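Record pair follows.
FIRST:
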Amino acid sequence: MKIESIKESAKKAIIELLNKQLQVEYAFIINYPRIIDKLIAVDKINDEQLNKDLERLGKDSTRHLGSVGQLIVQLGGEPMWQIEVIDRLVDVDNLLDHQLKKEKVALSLCQEAKRVAERNKVKVKVRDFLGRLIRVEDELPYDVLNASDVISTLERMIIDETHHIRLVHDSIATLNMFMNK
């Protein structure tokens, strides 16, 4: 049987885009609990919805990090990311503005990865072996990724990124409301 997979060169390009996404966006994950603590303890802003949004953003981002990393591994790559710890939390609104920009860059990288996947489909002759698609055309068999599965995963990531942008934007708006009182 034949399925649509993704060209090897495109897999490498997608891995590169997703690793850039990890570098841009996820350096900030560890700082969300610190931001919440600063808002409550130092700035005396204890808004339940703002705290929930920031907690959810941290948890969603951690889950999303796992999904991105898993796709990178499925494509044959290795996830590369780092954590950026901010020494001192001074202006939370500026930190969130900076993170909003990062989220938008991460969204565009994910959208580009999806475009690369869609433009680089290739028909591959496979056989099913215990639920795994194995390439038949080469001497050395290896697992084959179904292009539609990769594209579906990227679409879910785009939805997640869009949601993250909205959460950060709403958090900034709520924070600005408190700061202007």
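SECOND:
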Amino acid sequence: MPTNAEILQYAPIASYLAANDVRKNVLFNNFSRLNPILPQQIYAIYFLVKKIYDIDPNYSGMTPVCWYLWEIMGRYGVAAQGISGGGGYTPTPTPVQNYPIYITQANFTTSTFYPNTKIFGSNILVFWNEVNRYLLPTEFTVSSTGLTITAVGFDAQSGFDVNLVIEKVYT
């Protein structure tokens, strides 16, 4: 059972989720057993309980009323719990790198190292604008921490403009 503070945190989200289901039921003529005023009921109880909680969180009747609110929220409370990161499994998105990546000398941490953990494991090409060509596979390395340029004469901190474009090769 979530704490009173958590229930009050989940209630507005649950109200929104319930309202979304009500709208979907009306839109698709799905006349289920869903209470059409459930979103308003959740929010009305939340609104009053939240005012009391803000004044005195240790009010003696707070816990039973919060439990009642939790019961009214039902499946929407559990969904709100997952959305706000409390309890249950919350999926963690995998970082995705969009291509092409445009790099200037400001993006390098050393004269040859560009930190970007998202490019590791990708088949990439690096285009060096100043010499107007793609770097050979022997002129750069990709590690789990980023890209290191090993081309002769490359120095991102030399004071000259450095512009690279990283492209992903789809095979």
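COMMENT: The beta strands are 101-104, 113-115, 124-128, 133-134, 140-142, 146-149, 163-168.
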